Amino acid sequence: MSEMVLMRATLSVALCLLLASVGSCCGPGRGHGKRRHPKKLTPLALKQFIPNVAEKTLGASGKYEGKITRNSDRFKDLAPSYNHDIIFKDEENTNADRLMTQRCRDKLNSLAISVMNQWPGVKLRVTEGWDEDGHHSEESLHYEGRAVDITTSDRDKSKYGMLSRLAVEAGFDWVYYESKAHIHCSVKAENSVAAKSGGCFPGSSIVILSDGRTKPLKELQVGDKVLAADQQGHLVPSDFLMFMDQDKQIMRDFHVLETEEPRCRLTLTAAHLVFVMSNNNNSSDIRAVFSSNVKVGQWLLVVGKDRPDHLIPARVTRIHVEKYRGSYAPVTSHGTIIVDWVLASCYAVVEDHDLAHWVFVPVRLWRTFLSLVGMVKELSSVYQTEGVHWYPELLYHVGSWVLDSSSFYPQTGL
């Protein structure tokens, strides 16, 4: 029993490492901006699934979040697909198979192009999409519009192994060559952190240095001390350790959280963690949530204008989305940072600030060692000029190795 618990604990840590590395990157994926050489595609074998973990785990499409019906608030999140390069079986004659999440539709559109390139004259065929009739087992991702079952238009079963591989290459979060009749594909939820391409701030965001001066976040350098908060919520100077990822050119959507009294405007990606309170009179209610989950009426912690050495609650009055060029993911020794006069976490992906902070213990220890020998700037390899930092890259490879070497049985809920 103890060995089983240890194995599960080890795997859980590996999953968190994997997610921390992927989600903390600003770009759309590992190796963004690098030239990729054509690679030979290997068809999947019958009953093979990629990644080699259960469908509803963090390393794949993630947990089931509840059935969507036509009367539920989440129904508006389903997007119809009218792609003429895709054939929908639609045996119910309700167009239900055309409905899916935006992420699922994007991956399906990419796959449709790959199918036509692979087999001229052949189209992608969807046999099952969103299910509103209860034809699948409990907690099937079909009920959320996050799963599709596919074949080719010519129903040539000899193509299905390669079709499965093409689905993997198209970016589906879990692909299962389930039977000789079809392939099952699914994606992460829209509000999943891993689906949001990480957590970052625009480079134009302002940080406060320990001496009170301010500078654009993109200009931070190793050796800088910035204003952050400790576990007790006190403002403290904190060492800037590195950018987990930085991309000067990428154009992306950012959530803008505006407050009143004092008026602040925090800009960050949907997957980034920010500290909120539901009641401004209850400091024990402070928790870290994804910025996409912040609601008008909640309270952020901001630097007081009259008492700049204290954090005070400020009510969120407006939330909207704006596009910015440039995306930066800073890490400090305290794991928090004051950006645009608002307290935010340095982390994303997993909605657990403390766990994410624990993952970066080696980086903090390395920084401490360099400080002791007086060689922070001379020998600090925790800083990079562009792209993904080597430490998240290392975590990605470790997590991938653990996941690929683990044995799981598929849990499709079909």
Automatic annotation (TrEMBL):
Ca(2+) 1 binds at residues 91-92, 97, 127-128. Ca(2+) 2 binds at residues 92, 128, 131, 133. GO terms for cellular component: endoplasmic reticulum membrane; extracellular space; Golgi membrane; plasma membrane. The keyword DNA repair does not apply. Multimer. This is Hedgehog protein. InterPro entries: Hedgehog, Hedgehog_Hint, Hedgehog_Signaling, Hedgehog_signalling_dom, Hint_dom_C, Hint_dom_N, Hint_dom_sf, Intein_N. The record marks 245 as: Involved in cholesterol transfer. It comes from Etheostoma spectabile. The record marks 269 as: Involved in auto-cleavage. It is found in: Endoplasmic reticulum membrane. Belongs to the hedgehog family.
